[in-house]
UniProtKB/TrEMBL annotation:
Keyword ATP-binding attached: yes
SUPFAM superfamilies: Ribokinase-like
Record's keyword terms, sorted: ATP-binding, Kinase, Nucleotide-binding, Thiamine biosynthesis, Transferase
Phylogenetic lineage: Bacteria, Bacillati, Actinomycetota, Actinomycetes, Pseudonocardiales
Organism (species): Saccharomonospora amisosensis
GO biological process: thiamine biosynthetic process; thiamine diphosphate biosynthetic process
Cellular component GO terms held in the UniProt record: cytosol
Reactions catalysed according to its record: 4-amino-5-hydroxymethyl-2-methylpyrimidine + ATP = 4-amino-2-methyl-5-(phosphooxymethyl)pyrimidine + ADP + H(+); 4-amino-2-methyl-5-(phosphooxymethyl)pyrimidine + ATP = 4-amino-2-methyl-5-(diphosphooxymethyl)pyrimidine + ADP
EC number(s) recorded for this UniProt protein: 2.7.1.49, 2.7.4.7
Function in brief: Catalyzes the phosphorylation of hydroxymethylpyrimidine phosphate (HMP-P) to HMP-PP, and of HMP to HMP-P.
Record's protein name: Hydroxymethylpyrimidine/phosphomethylpyrimidine kinase
Length: 270
């Protein structure tokens, strides 16, 4: 019999095109050797050209998925992605407390919060009134928050343009309550390297890596956050989980492929 692997839960939206969202999370969990579980929050209608619309899952169904798997199978680490509405964010936050996931709970199962607000095409994945709930309900429960630069601007008002403003952004995010923040530099297009900043207020780690020339980066943020979540599920500390997640996303971006008429996904094939 195969020994039971570690488990990781993603609380996220579905991408019908299979490039991002829970589809990216599940295949990343698989590739990283952990058993993936899902609490679906919303179903997007989406292809390589963008998101045509989405429909949220009823709040009680979202929370029931979390309690069903946490009570029976156990969760070694969890991740949130697209949460769509205030109601879903509030209900997920209190359910995480009930099942002991996240900062401040007794068991403190690691929680990665990827504060998804919009697709790379600019399509909203979070209702406008839900940003404050993300700030006040979810970020304080995060072991690690992984915003991209657009999300940093929305959450803190800090526009990151260089290393100095990246540090200011990390500090502003830490004031919202996560234990660690990873301010991703991947969207700083004029920089020849891709430098991410990881900080818990005491330690500051700069993680540099090559910038790959590809337009096909759909699902990159989800893939990085779920690779980090898999590392945490396997018992790595945050800095080691982030380094291994970064190696995973670098390979995935290097092998990204065209699909459809728009933006193709980062690749699970390597
Ligand atoms: N669709 C869903 C369901 C997502 O969760 C995300 C990102 O988290 C996206 C789309 C957007 O991905 P991208 O910004 O790579 O287009």
């Amino acid at each position: 019999m195969t020994p039971t692997p570690k488990t990781a839960l993603t609380i996220a939206g579905s991408d019908s095109g299979g490039g991002a969202g829970l589809q990216a999370d599940l295949r990343t969990f698989f590739a990283c050797g952990v058993h993936g579980m899902t609490a679906v929050t919303a179903v997007t209608v989406q292809n390589s050209l963008g998101v045509a619309g989405f429909s949220e899952i009823p709040v009680d169904v979202v929370t029931a998925q979390i309690t069903a798997v946490a009570g029976d199978m156990g969760v070694n680490a969890a991740k949130t992605g697209m949460l769509a509405t205030v109601e879903i964010i509030e209900a997920v936050a209190s359910t995480l407390d009930e099942v002991g996931i996240g900062r401040g709970t007794q068991s403190h199962v690691p929680l990665v919060v990827d504060p998804v607000a919009a697709s790379m095409h600019g399509d909203a994945l979070l209702r406008q009134d839900a940003l404050e709930a993300l700030r006040t309900e979810l970020l304080p429960r995060a072991t690690l928050a992984t915003p991209n630069l657009d999300e940093v601007l929305l959450l803190t008002g800090v526009r990151v343009s260089d290393g100095q403003s990246q540090r200011e952004a990390a500090q502003a995010l830490l004031e919202l309550g996560p234990q660690w923040v990873l301010v991703k530099g991947g969207h700083l297009v004029n920089s020849p390297r891709c430098v991410d900043l990881l900080s818990d207020g005491t330690h500051i780690v700069e993680l540099g890596g090559p910038r790959y020339e590809t337009e096909h980066t759909h699902g990159g943020g989800d893939t990085l956050a779920s690779a980090i979540t898999a590392g945490l599920a396997k018992g790595l500390g945050v800095p080691d989980a982030v380094s291994s997640g970064k190696r995973f996303i670098e390979r995935s971006v290097a092998e990204a492929y065209p699909l459809g008429a728009g933006v193709g996904p980062v690749s699970p094939f390597w």
